[in-house]
Write a structure and sequence with these properties.
Order of helices and strands: EEEHEEEHHEEHHHHHHHHHHH
Number of strands: 8
Strand order of the largest sheet: 1-2-3-5-4
GO molecular function: ATP binding; MAP kinase kinase activity; protein serine/threonine kinase activity
Family: Belongs to the protein kinase superfamily. STE Ser/Thr protein kinase family. MAP kinase kinase subfamily.
Distance between the termini: 53 Å
Helix content: 40-55%
Pfam families: Pkinase
InterPro entries: Kinase-like_dom_sf (IPR011009), Prot_kinase_dom (IPR000719), Protein_kinase_ATP_BS (IPR017441), Ser/Thr_kinase_AS (IPR008271)
Enzyme class: transferase
Bound molecules: adenosine-5'-diphosphate, magnesium ion
Structural class: alpha+beta
Radius of gyration: 20 Å
Strand content: 5-15%
């Protein structure tokens, strides 16, 4: 069945971003529930529309368990509606729930997230020839079944109008050094996404984004390009493998930074692949359902188990 905007009924809001809103909607003809992202788009130019249609077909054609299922995009009243699978939460909201309980996010969780994101990005590159360009906690979604999936691949960048783009060009806290100051040909390699993954992992492990708020692009340039890369505090109790994984992802010189082939062979990732004890779906459900007090106890329990 071809989904049309007129057949969709709004259920509730799932979240809001810089460019629009994401809502849960029911397809009236089939009863299927979608997450619909509505972006105000001033894209009228034919060639950009064509690129978009091609991209749409490309992403619809292939998917993997680490990518949020994409059902297609449509135009309505000058907006673009992007239809995708509904997930239970996003990593930004989820890690903040842990921080609010004064607990660190357990390492087996972080390891599984790193594994899935690396697998998803690798699949995108190998099978769809796509580079994500916007890897960050809010674009990593989780569900109670234990799936970790990336979303917002490629599409948004093609749609948002150029004014919005230039306004937001700098000051993106997940941008690698080569995109802030470097050769344009390096700026969009696969390694850019590897850097953003590294920043994402530091953020969820440390409980806060490693860089402060920049007031000007110059401050960003100074910090990201000139200072040593961020790392996770050794006192938080994470493994040496994790610290090394982050260090590899955050190699400032993009030519030295590993690509997915190497990333997927790192001991931190291999261990995550061999770890079958940790029940990520159960953990996500428990945290989402728990009251604040209960959540405290669950998280403390997990970190004690890890120490044992
Ligand atoms: P951003 O990613 O910049 O925060 P978005 O507009 O892409 O902005 O998404 C806004 C929020 O909507 C996200 O932070 C996430 O929590 C939620 N969201 C996005 N897509 C989905 C989805 N498929 N299922 C459930 N929640 C989603
Ligand atoms: Mg997003």
């Amino acid at each position: 069945v071809e989904v049309q905007a007129k057949d969709l009924e709004r259920i509730r809001e799932l979240g809001r971003g810089a460019y629009g809103v994401v809502e849960e909607m029911r397809h009236l003809l089939t009863g299927v529930i979608f997450a619909v992202k509505r972006i105000h788009s001033s894209v009228n130019d034919e060639s950009r529309k064509r690129t978009f249609v091609e991209l749409d077909a490309c992403i619809k054609s292939k998917c993997c368990p680490q990518m949020v299922r994409f059902y297609g995009a449509m135009y309505r009243e000058g907006d673009v509606w992007i239809c995708m699978e509904v997930m239970d939460t996003s990593l930004d909201k989820f890690y903040r729930m842990c921080v609010d309980s004064h607990s660190i996010v357990p390492e087996p969780f972080i390891a599984k997230v790193a594994l899935c994101v690396a697998q998803g990005l690798n699949f995108m590159k190998e099978e769809l020839n796509l580079i994500h360009r916007d890897v960050k906690p809010s674009n990593i979604l989780l569900n109670r079944q234990g799936f970790v999936k990336i979303c917002d691949f490629g599409i948004s960048g093609h749609l948002t109008n150029s004014v919005a783009k230039t306004m937001n060009a700098g000051c993106k806290p997940y941008m690698p050094p080569e995109r802030i100051d470097g050769d344009t040909k390096d700026a969009y390699g696969v390694q850019a996404d590897v850097w953003s993954l590294g920043i994402t992992l530091v953020e969820i492990a440390a409980g806060a984004h490693p860089y402060g708020k920049w007031k000007t692009p110059f401050e960003q340039l100074k910090q990201v390009v000139q200072e040593p890369p961020p790392s996770v505090d050794k006192n938080l109790g994470y493994s040496d493998e994790f610290h090394d994984f982050v260090k590899q992802c955050l190699i400032k010189d993009c030519k030295q930074r590993p690509k997915y082939e190497q990333i997927l062979k790192h001991p931190f990732i291999i261990n995550a692949q061999n770890e079958h004890e940790f029940d990520l779906g159960g953990f996500v459900s428990t945290i989402l359902d728990a009251s604040n007090v209960e959540r405290d106890r669950v998280l403390k329990g997990i970190s004690i188990e890890n120490d044992a």
